From TrEMBL:
Pfam families: DUF892 (PF05974). It comes from Natronobacterium haloterrestre. It comes from the Archaea. InterPro entries: DUF892_YciF-like, Ferritin-like, Ferritin-like_SF, YciF. This is Ferritin-like metal-binding protein YciE. SUPFAM superfamilies: Ferritin-like.
Amino acid sequence: MNANVDSLDELFVHKLAQQYYAEQELVEALDEMAINATNDKLSAGFADHRDETRTQVERLEDVFAALDRPAESRAMPVLDALEEERREYEDAIEDDDLLNMVYLNAGMMTERIEMTAYEGLSTMAGRLDYSDEVRTPLESNYDEEKSAYRELDAMKTASDMKSLWDRLTPGS
């Protein structure tokens, strides 16, 4: 972290910039997973969330505008690490079903991180008594992340994933 953070407002803007970075990076990652996933339901889910994520980027730009600040990105190391791990698995795994499992898990981990980030931003925005122009877009993004997580969580037990689990689980 190259910047000094000396106040809750500065911390909020720093975390907002990290989330802005994350959402921008995720548009590309979701696009790649939508293309590479061989499970149709998983692929469609990633494509739908990619489109939602583009809207989330715009909402974060609206938050910066409401704060009368230019939109800025700051690296989010935890997301970068997840992306690095996903790419390493892509290079190491040749089995499509196994790669689909990697994507499902990566998606769930990412959604949890994003939900936590938006919870923190919303808490800080409330403490800073920011207007609804700041708070509402954050809450909308949080709600979409929760929904995306629920969809991924339901997918892991869906009937079309059962044959995949059966094939990947020894002794099934």
